[in-house]
From TrEMBL:
Residues 5-116 form the Response regulatory domain. PANTHER family: STAGE 0 SPORULATION PROTEIN A HOMOLOG, TRANSCRIPTIONAL REGULATOR-RELATED. One of its GO terms (molecular function) is DNA binding. InterPro entries: CheY-like_superfamily (IPR011006), LytR-like (IPR046947), LytTR_DNA-bd_dom (IPR007492), Sig_transdc_resp-reg_receiver (IPR001789). The modification 4-aspartylphosphate is found at D56. Residues 138-242 form the HTH LytTR-type domain. It comes from Abyssalbus ytuae. This is LytTR family DNA-binding domain-containing protein.
Amino acid sequence: MMKIKAVIVEDSRLARNELKELIKEHEEIEIIGEAENVDDGFELITGTNPDLLFLDINMPEKDGFELLGMLDVVPVTVFTTAYDEYAIKSFEYNALDYLLKPISPKRFADAVNKVKEKISSDEAKEYTREKHNENSQIFIKDGEKCWLVKIGDISLFEIVGNYTRVYFEDNNPLIYKSLNQIELRLPEDCFFRANRQQIINIKHIKTVVPWFNGKFKLTLMSGAEVEISRRQSYSFKERLSI
């Protein structure tokens, strides 16, 4: 039987106990810890690397969305809350599911089935939490907008002052992390440092043309154009067997 390591981050003891009662009916889920606030939840998640996170949204001091923003790698996440006003917003984060309290056993079972399908799919793709790969999720917040983004869906990282702009689908938010910090966690089979300012996802390359002084110019599937620096061009040719 598939064993799914799960943690609960929820400020209400009653709500945590209700979740644990629901989980008892699903032997495949193993609760490995619980926390009543965001800071404790962060320590718990980074220390145990769970597969699944049951996350309350509305908590004192810091909310559930802020917790996701603190994590380098986000577990499969199921939001739990008593406030249905968060429903639409939570799906903007690409949460796997959203459970409105009080949670019915039937609704919980539906969420568990989604979790099992998701984790089975990820395991088939050699999903690990030790290091980002193209199936890992990262949390991005820019102003009032937030996303849970799969690494493989990101086409380009680009320095903008003290920030880094992240390009995926039709979005390009800014995050307060340096390009060097980001590069250390990216899967090398997907990403390449094109120049001092940009990192590209080589699986998103549409065209490659020789450019001036031994450089290359790329067009990504998004339409963005990127120049491979002269210093990086040799490594780039080896990567693409040009």
